[in-house]
Specification:
Elements: H1 2-13, E1 29-37, H2 42-53, E2 58-61, H3 63-68, H4 70-78, E3 82-85, H5 98-116, E4 123-124, H6 133-141, E5 145-146, E6 151-152, H7 161-169, E7 178-182, H8 186-201, E8 205-207, H9 209-217
Parallel strand pairs: 1-2, 1-7, 1-8, 2-3, 4-5, 6-7
Helix pairs in contact: 2-8, 5-6, 7-8
């Protein structure tokens, strides 16, 4: 409940700095996002699905997994997708103190920039969408932008690709939405082509979260 109040406050107080939800001025644009990668098998398949459709997405990557699979991070980056920070490990903000939590995010940022060979925008999605006022304040001072989501695909709560397609189709979409998927579920990879084809048929334009934020702010 506290997290929901924090998110609502961020959306109201600093929408240009912290992208919590999409806005009403993004045309027919949406942002497709994937958490918890890179995955040694699924990431390549997701990239192929996106490439076949000429779609762009944002990948919120764990620093530890990025260290294990740097070639996948480079592939994501080279295909024109946005790479973003999901912490060094998948850690809830309540599991460690704020100093350790922030240190993990900075470590992940260093890993991503080392692999990319250039500065990477300080875009961060907290694992589980959980945050605290202390870590929020520290990260904002360090120049990070928080990104949550407005549409959860629910791929964490179903068991079969057909269930995921049905679940997603029941959720109304609006321009400016940020869609949440995960790289580590086989069912997500299997359901993704049908979901994307439906969205393409509805003439949605896919952009990175940073591009979406710019469109809304503009």
């Amino acid at each position: 409940m506290i997290g929901k109040f924090i998110k609502a406050g961020l959306n109201r107080c600093c929408p240009s700095k912290v992208l919590v939800r999409g806005g009403r001025h993004a045309g027919n644009t949406i942002a497709l996002t994937f958490d918890d990668g890179p995955h040694p098998e699924h990431t390549l398949e997701i990239l192929e699905i996106l490439e076949q459709r000429s779609l762009k997405a944002t990948f919120f990557l764990q620093g530890m997994e990025a260290e294990r699979h740097p070639d996948l991070v480079r592939r994501i980056d080279q295909q024109g997708h946005q790479i973003a920070n999901h912490g060094y490990i998948h850690c809830h903000t309540g599991e460690v103190n704020s100093k350790e939590y922030v240190a993990g995010i900075l470590r992940a940022q260093q890993v991503l920039e080392g692999i990319a060979g250039r500065p990477v925008p300080r875009v961060f999605r907290p694992p589980y969408g959980a945050t605290s006022l202390v870590t929020l304040w520290k990260l904002l001072k360090l120049g990070f932008q928080y990104v949550f989501w407005s549409v959860d695909s629910c791929d964490s709560f179903v068991q079969h690709p057909d269930e995921l397609v049905d679940s997603f189709e029941k959720q109304p979409l609006r321009p400016g939405d940020i869609l949440l998927f995960h790289e580590d579920y086989r069912l997500t990879v299997d359901a993704l082509p049908r979901i994307l084809d439906r969205l393409m048929a509805e003439k949605y334009n896919f952009v990175s979260v940073s591009e979406l934020n710019a469109a809304i702010a503009g």
